Amino acid sequence: MSVLDNKKISFIGGGNMAQALISGLVSCGIQPNLITVADPSSDVREQLAAKGLNTIDPITDPKAAVIDADIIVLAVKPQVMKAVVGAFTDVLDNQLIISVAAGLSTEILSAMLNGYRNIVRAMPNTPAMIQMGATGLYGADNISAEQKELATAVMEASGLVMWVENETHMHAVTAVSGSAPAYMFYFIESMVDRAVALGLDQEQASALALQTMIGAAKMAMDSDDAPAELRRKVTSPNGTTQAAIESMQANEIGRQIGEAMQACYDRSQALSEEMSK
Fold this sequence. Notes:
Blueprint: E1 9-12, H1 16-27, E2 35-38, H2 42-49, E3 54-56, H3 64-67, E4 71-74, H4 78-85, E5 96-99, H5 106-112, E6 119-123, E7 133-139, H6 145-156, E8 159-163, H7 169-178, H8 180-197, H9 202-222, H10 227-233, H11 240-250, H12 253-275
Parallel strand pairs: 1-2, 1-4, 2-3, 4-5, 5-6, 7-8
Antiparallel strand pairs: 6-7
Helix pairs in contact: 7-12, 8-9
């Protein structure tokens, strides 16, 4: 029995991330008729209605998705959030709100919601689209254990969930997982390009690089050894792997990765500050 059984979940916004989360919920056994999506696009509404979901035009009926909901997922762009939520703040009544809008702190969201405080902030990443996501969650002190359990269940339907105790740590979550799929894609892209230059065709290079990335991640997840120890175990003295690692160390790849993550962290902070003005 799930904590989400018979819970009505409403998504404000039906874009890619909302659809990823919805797909995860349905795959975990949530009945589509318990899910409502409010989106101004008739095409999006038709697509979701065909899957058995309830759909609402938030322009003509902005409060309908909120009144009967137990959980409300805010999945619209940060720039339009204030206008969107302003249409239904007067009908909020102890529902749990989960926001997946980047850069909007719980304090800013609370102000947009006229002081409403039942807010959990989420930072998912794009692999949620295939139920392999990694999501950071933050809830203020007023969020109850039951509400945390509900938020965990919603986001866990699409992958791993980690709670942070300090909201500023959401910037670190952005750096290590929120934006990080792009780092992985860039690394794979570079490996494939060099493998092709070394004589493999595109299909061979892509297949080998992708499977290696998956296999290495799986080994790291399943092993009791730290990544540094796993690396040591596959690095034979004076072997081919050692040559590659020494090249990376000489080029300070570790430092460059750290600086890239710091740049992501700093930009996340700056965006949050911009949204607070």
